[in-house]
Task: inverse folding
């Protein structure tokens, strides 16, 4: 018995899934940027960086991945309320870190997606 096995259907399904994941990733970036804007109205901070799987094509998995955000200039007493606020708005787990003095600070500044307050 000879012949080749066609993966055309499987390839089409996988391609569609990749497109859907990318659409969801881009949507989550927009939602996250909007959430940071809302957060800045409630808790003052100077800037934030989105990093991790959300900014890397093919790595963010909707419904599984968390959202990684490094924030700069946030008061210590506002940290946990801010994390809860973002998690509620985004409806996903948020890994919020204070950027100043963090071991990954330089990498996050270099590779992260920067958010700054308008104006």
Result:
């Amino acid at each position: 018995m000879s012949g080749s096995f066609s993966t055309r259907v499987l390839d089409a399904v996988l391609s569609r899934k990749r497109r859907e994941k990318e659409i969801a990733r881009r949507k989550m970036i927009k939602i996250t940027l909007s959430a940071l804007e809302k957060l800045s109205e409630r808790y003052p901070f100077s800037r934030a960086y989105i990093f991790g799987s959300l900014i890397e094509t093919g790595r963010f998995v909707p419904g599984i991945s968390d959202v990684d955000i490094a924030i700069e200039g946030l008061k210590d007493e506002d940290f946990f309320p801010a994390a809860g606020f973002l998690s509620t708005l985004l409806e996903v787990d948020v890994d919020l870190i204070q950027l100043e003095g963090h071991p990954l600070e330089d990498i996050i500044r270099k590779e992260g997606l920067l958010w700054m307050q308008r104006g």
